[in-house]
Amino acid sequence: MAYADQQMSGNKITALIIVAILHVVVGYALVTGLAYEAIKKVKEVTSAVNIEEEKPPEEPPPPPPPKEDTPPPPIVAPPPPISFNAPAPQVQTVNEAPAIPAPPAPVALPAPPAAPPPPRFTPKAATPKGNPGNWATSNDYPSRALREEREGTTGFRVTVGPDGKVTDCQITRSSGSPDLDEATCSNVRRRARFAPAMDGEGNPTTGSYSNSIRWVIPKD
Questions:
Q1: Which has the minimum average pLDDT: 14-18, 95-99, 172-176?
Q2: What pTM was computed for the model?
Q3: ∠ CA(214), CA(216), CA(220), 5° rounding?
Q4: CB-based contacts of 214: which residues, under 8 Å, 6+ apart?
Q5: What does the pLDDT read at residue 45?
Q6: Which site from 18, 125, 152, 184 is most exposed, i.e. has the minimal number of CB atoms within 10 Å?
């Protein structure tokens, strides 16, 4: 039994060594095959890609030499610098006086008329003769105005002829009662007498006279 066990143990070890050697051989073959395939692929890629080197750009040809007959271009001098520091022009304001129109030509005026000679006599207005208060009395009071107890003052103006008599009578201020106004002019025409007006030659002339009559109801 011991011999058989030892023989079996030796066979196991031998088998294990063989198996290990086989693994090494297979691993080496795999690694070697893979490396070969990788190198092959690299070669194929390298042969497929054609890398061309970039050529440097060509230099342009030099310009032709100038002809001897062509004259050189003229030399133009630059313009002189312009100075902007010139003084500003002075502006003078001249006040022109307005044109004064010529005065109008004098016009000869006609000579004033000669003054009339002074009168030899001082003119006079017509003046009443006697007392003007007697021209209308209480007896001349209109009966209707007396019954109605109407009173008032009537102003009048009369025209006196050269003979001193009244030629016209006008009411200048009414008393408010037509019958009192009418009685005023009627009595003045009938009773008034005047010294006629006198002109500058001392001759009687037409004149005028103004006054008023106050109508008052008499008291007993």
A1: 95-99
A2: 0.46
A3: 150
A4: 151, 152, 153
A5: 41
A6: 18
Q: Which residues contact 169 (CB under 8 A, 6 or more apart)?
A: 156, 157, 158, 159, 184, 185, 188, 189
In which element (H, E) is residue 212 found?
strand 207-215
Cα separation of 36 and 38, whole Å?
5
How many of the other CB atoms lie within 10 Å of CB of 141?
Answer: 19
- The CA distance from 189 to 3, in Å, is 216
pLDDT (tens digit, 9 = 90+) per residue, 161-218?
Answer: 999 999 999 999 999 999 999 999 999 999 999 999 999 888 999 999 999 999 999 8
Count of residues making up the chain: 220
Query: Phi and psi of 117, rounded to 5°?
Result: -65, 145
DSSP class of residue 141 equals S
**Residue corresponding to tokens 């006599």:** 121
- 160 and 126 in contact (C-beta within 8 Å)? yes
Q: How far apart are CA 220 and CA 217, in angstroms?
A: 10
Q: In the chain, how long is the greatest CA-to-CA distance?
A: 222
d(CA 175, CA 185): 13
